[in-house]
Amino acid sequence: MTHFSKYLVSTLLILTLFLSLLDKSLGQAEVNIKDGPLGELEVMKVPQDGTQLNEDHSGAATWIRKWYGLDGNYINNGGFNASAPIDLIARGTNQRLFQETLSTVNGLMKTQRIEMEWSQNNGGKRNWTVYEVDPGNQNNIIRNGVATNFDTYGILVIRAPDTIQSVMSPAHDDYAQIWINGEKWYNNSRWTGAPQQVDYNVEVELKKGVNVLLYRVGQSGGAAYMNLHFDAKTHRSVKLYPFNSNDQKSFFDEIHSFLDVEIGSKLTTTWADLKLN
Known about the structure:
The chain is an alpha+beta fold. The protein has helices at residues 3-25, 80-83, 88-92, 99-102, 105-110, 232-237, 248-263, 265-276, and strands at 55-56, 66-70, 74-75, 116-117, 125-126, 128-132, 150-160, 164-173, 175-180, 183-188, 197-198, 202-206, 209-219, 225-230, 239-241.
């Protein structure tokens, strides 16, 4: 074996060890929610008290910053426990969209032509756009000056090369709910204590191709944040969107090509119809 080959092998071994340690440093060895998604009778069931990990993930560089969602929150929600069982997406679209369907490709596509319009007391009309959060900011979902009694939504498109078992780590204040591909995987009424502190590492399945994740956080008072990252292996293998986009048009422009491949001619027709509206 040449000197160069030995050097290359040593480098690869060191890199492999580093990546393995990185996975462990993010707390992914302690997956404490498994066997999802939640069943029909479990969708509002919260994790048992005392099972929280209280893990500090502030060292993770993979916290997600960009989300597709609404340009304002649902306000005057009556407190997060009161609002959590209510489908605010259905309420604001006259039952044309639901939380479960919004976490699917077809539901995501419909946001191009279905407007969100809550009552004036709850914020009125909201537009779909791309927004950014600072994972280190404990108030990163406070918008338009309203700091108490609101709900917010964020959508993420995950493009996976294969079907993979992934681990997602949410941090939130207060009540968090997460759906992926039309199914609910996480429901937790307890805030996590800090914007980059994780109580539950949740094992989820991402299918090959396009996955849509919907993240909802309901707030009453105090800190207000919504953060998420996956295990290091997932971040190395998938592509996340929004990526370069900063509004609704540029978001759909950047996901258009692979959505065409995902759904085929049906999507092409739908896309054309939407562009005509």
